[in-house]
Amino acid sequence: MPDREIPGDRTEPAFLPYGRQEIGDADVKAVVEALVSGWLTTGPRVVEFEQAFVSHVGAKEGVAVNSGTAALHCAMRALGVGPGDDVIVPAITFAASANAALYEGATPIFADIEPDTLLIDPTSVAARITPATRVIVAVDYAGQPADYNALYALAKPRGIRIIADACHAPGATYKGRATGTLADISCFSFHPVKHLTTCEGGMAVTDNSGMAAHMRRFRNHGIDSDHRSREAAGAHAYDMVELGFNYRLPDVQCALGLSQLKRLSGWVAARQRIAALYEDALAGLAEAVPLKAHRDRTNAHHLYVVKLMDGIDRDRVFARLRADGIGANVHYAPVYLHSHYRKLGYKPGLCPVAEAVSRQILTLPMIPAMTAGDVRRVVGALTRATA
């Protein structure tokens, strides 16, 4: 996505958003074929997409749902989370990581983060574990996996389960293991700014067939079969065995996902290439520091986040970048500072590192089609904005 220039005329550069999907002719063809196939939902492409995705990430079972949030909710239900349970969640994440616990009547307990990676801090987790702790949610922030060995050392002796919120990290690895294989259940998102898109969508993956069966039932109103399986059996009767939700992902969207999945590895490689360009371009800019990269992990780079030096007004820099055509963003404010969580009784001061860092962080554009010139343009704008 280079700057536009018309020969003989000078134009303003195109606005560069922080993220954007890429839809190609093959994607359009796949969606059209699904539209005319006779199956619009709960058809064969759902299973095909589930099988293709779990093969890619290395898990055994996949449950396609209509959002990453739905995947997290399905995971909570499959792990038996309920009233009286605590779920430990990092303070810096999208609200859905914690909301999924609220949906099941559990209490989110917010852990602080590592200041240089923004990943959940195992030391903070250890201080928050109680007999009521049922689940730890490990968020692979910006595309870098959390420290799963440290988290399992805390969780396993106590019978605590781990959910990986891997929505930022398909294609990343931790100590040579792929995201999708690092937790009891791993959750992915196919929102338009993620690595691959189904417009909206998500998937929960696991090696536990019982958990997978529970999540498939839960995504379909708690019913023990779906329309396609009843059609194949020539049956009409079904039983709603629990209260579930309509979290199904239609065939048409799964067709798009199948098409996009073929390019996932290339998109991850492109994001890693752009991140390396950013690292080089930012090397001489003391005012903005990239997040630390752990050497035992590979980063899928959903986001490219920098920390601004103390004393710099982040919101002023944000406004200057936007005025310069750079679609900067912020990911995220601590979840418990949102109005709904304040109404639940959460107060400032719970996670001092997260609260301090959240005022310093800035997300820069990260799009696989970006060029070296685009990176130079962003860093040039950032240099001017922080001067």
Strand content: 5-15%
Count every helix, treating DSSP H or I runs of 4 or more residues as helices. 14
Query: What would the principal axes of the Cα set say about the shape?
Result: globular
Structural class: alpha/beta
As for the CATH topology of the largest domain, it is Aspartate Aminotransferase, domain 2
Terminus-to-terminus distance: 27 Å
Provide the domain count: 2
Number of strands: 13
Biggest sheet: strand arrangement = 1-9-8-5-4-2-3
Mean pLDDT: 95
Provide the low-confidence segments as ranges. 1-10
Oligomer: single chain
CATH superfamily of the largest domain: Type I PLP-dependent aspartate aminotransferase-like (Major domain)
Q: What is the H/E string?
A: HHEHEHEHEHEEEEEHHHHEEEHHHEH
Please give the radius of gyration in angstroms: 21 Å
Q: Helicity level, as a percent range?
A: 25-40%
By CATH, the architecture of the largest domain is named 3-Layer(aba) Sandwich
* CATH class category of the largest domain: Alpha Beta
Mind summarizing the main beta sheet? Answer: 7 strands, mixed
Descriptive report:
This protein folds into two domains: 25-261, Aspartate Aminotransferase, domain 2, CATH 3.40.640; 264-386, Aspartate Aminotransferase, domain 1 (Alpha-Beta Complex). Helix content is 37%, strand content 14%. The chain is globular and about 70 Å long. The longest helix is centred in the last third of the chain and has 19 residues, at 264-282. Helix 3 crosses helix 7. With 387 residues, the chain is of the alpha/beta class. The chain is built from 14 helices and 13 strands.
